[in-house]
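Render this sequence as a predicted structure.
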Amino acid sequence: MNAPLRKLGEQPTEQDPRWAAVTARDRSADGTFYYSVSTTGVYCRPSCPARHAKPGHVRFHRTRAEAERAGFRPCKRCKPDQVKPDQVEPDKRTEGISARLAAIDWVAVAEGLDSYGYAPLGKLLSASEGAELAGLYEDGSRFRSTVVMARHGFGRGEYKYFSYPLPNTIATLRPALYRALAPIANRWHAAMGIETSFPAAHADFIKRCHDAGQQRPTPLLLRYHEGDYNCLHQDLYGEHVFPLQVVILLSEPGTDFTGGELVLTEQRPRMQSRAEVVPLARGEAVVFAVHHRPVAGTRGTYRVNMRHGVSRLRSGERTTAGIIFHDAK
């Protein structure tokens, strides 16, 4: 029998996604949140070089002001109240993205994933950020390959895999989303009796993929026109698979296109398949299971098989971005 599936809110502090960033001293998390230590009365950046406090003494804050209102003073080692030299001229677009990521209720996301196999993340990209990303579709130099779905029996439409280096927007989102989702992925694997666990930092997981020969980037743009669709499938590209992925809609439903809904299905043992249609607005994102997810049953936890696709586009043009966290062979 597999381990019981526990809710993220029931996990100890050290299994909070933000704690993983703190223990990794992840510089890419700086500015997305701060943490305070009750025994010292200070608040810090995630990358603070000071010795880590006990998890029970740590609180998390979305902003410096929030930490200071709670009565904490800035740490003298990491100086969270000062701009670091490498942040003198920050990219305003990534600042906005980081702020939206910091505002996500990851406990609610975990509960949605546990209950349904997917969870909305809200608006991750502004209209201009989404348009800029979608506009890269015509720049062939940014992609490693193009797939015409009809040639492979995948459906109708087209998608393109980015090459490294990834666009700035994707390069910002991919490690930040991974950092928040890795504790959920580890909890799922433990519940399903899978020994593989995931490191706190995406760079370490990508190194694992590359060492195993999975060296081709998998983030992609997908484009559909009237009559196009994507058959139900799973994005498995090798031995190392991160169990969650993210899709961001870059077009406006009802204006740019009609139809073309994201469809998720799950097959439980000895039961008929269940389908979910996930509504998204432009710039909004959803995270969902790649392959399997754990479900708590009367006799323990069991696995259900997940697939995803896109229903037939009735009119217009639909563009989405997909963020897959493992690379491909």
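Summary. The domain at 101-324 is CATH 2.60.120.620 (Jelly Rolls). The chain has two domains: 8-90, 101-324.
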